[in-house]
Amino acid sequence: MTMRSEPHVVVVGAGIGGLVSALLLAARGVAVTLVEAQAEPGGKMRRVAVDGAWIDAGPTVFTMRWVFEQILAQAGATLDDTLALQPLGVLARHAWRGEAQTLDLYADAARSADAIAAFSSPAEARRFQAFCRQAREVYQALEAPYIRGHRPSLLSLGRALGPRGLATLAGLGPFANLWSALAKHFHDPRLQQLFGRYATYCGASPWGAPATLMLVAQVELDGVWAVGGGMHAVAQAFAALGEARGVVPRYGCAVRRIVVDSGRTTAVELANGERLPADAVVFNGDAQALALGLLGDDAKKAVRPRKLAQRSLSAVTWAVHARAQGFPLVRHNVFFDHDYRSEFDDIFRQRRLPQQGTVYVCAQDRDDHAAGPAGPAGAERLLCLVNAPADGDSRRFDPEETDPCEHRSLALLRQCGLQLTPQAHQVQRTTPHDFHQLFPGSAGALYGMATHGWLSSFQRPGAASAVSGLYLAGGSVHPGPGVPMAALSGWRAAEALMAGLVSTRRWRPAVTSGGTSMPSAMTAATR
After folding, report:
1. Which superfamily, per CATH, for 8-47+65-77+231-308+449-525?
2. How many CB atoms lie within 10 A of CB 513?
3. Is the pTM of this model over 0.85?
């Protein structure tokens, strides 16, 4: 086979993982075509137009900025020049049904401790400080060997942790779930409920998620930012950078199959019959779509079908452009009902929309000071979300099912003081069935497989698939869901692909400064 001076790679899917892979490959001199079924980039980091306003309808939180700083440095760019970021002092405002008290958590842990003392008790504030210390230790132990690892196993993780790291994890209790760990830290059930919500960041139940997910507390204490233009602006910025470095975008182009010849990917066939030759392919979609044969029978071999793997949470969301009154919303707000456990029993066991579901509200025109939009109408952009079962492949979630859920959610908001009375034209609803249609193979699961049990973290596929030349990125693969994690997966896919091109002698890349190594957040912070 003749060596090519410039290999051609097709990236399927313009979510953040695919955008990162495309950008880094193009920055290394690879010819990249980015294929996306939707009309614009973003994937789950999507936006919808409601009543004349664009509303972020996917991820709403920007964290772990070091991930993006290091990725952009590889492409010769900086985060400050790429995105307009505003640090949030208030991480989230929390309210409970029928209670006048609210609790704010802050980027300043000492300020949060003071708030918890006033909300609950000084003893709970001290327990919170101990919780933060343990969360930081867990994060420091796992960041290098797991979060930045290629695809760690229990054995490799144990070797990498060393005695101190192993002692940190052992201190959580053997095979402890997040809820049991929180029960050791907090006596106030409302605080257990609040911090138990960290499990949902990975689409899991706090009764099934490993205790290590307490590290989310440290991630948030390291900073949460609002993005100028919304989270969709992140996708737009990475897409623009990729194009500036040579990525050729093909939006509105669905993929029929990934072509495999003699055990290696050779092309991508579009739904219109067009064939794009490829020396390698990055698939940025739900890995289950490959296992189900949605990209062709040959590509099914890329990942092992995990029929028994539990799907993560889905959601019912309402993108709203209307007036909000009576409650001092900040950017991120969480409204809790009384029986938290029943929410996850309903979703994971009963397979129904929760009867007492937590409601998350992202007020996209608000800041730390709870200032709403000016003007007589006062309409603002809100994303309201309730967790739901990922059964979008087996039922439609018609209004007969979702309308009562909406009524229960609005009732909870009213009992917490928030009045929302949007008209029909001011609301766009998205159900698990809609998410399944948007993200084939997912059944509506927003986070891949559920992070339940200690072994689940090691069951996600890695960047290099079982099919030569086919690489994986996105929230369903290692290191997991969430915008920064999916971005890391895109970086890992680019690294693995570059190594594969060199090892098969398909290309000898020119030497460039920087390389593709991944320093830790702790190391990066000292530079």
Report:
1. FAD/NAD(P)-binding domain (3.50.50.60)
2. 6
3. yes
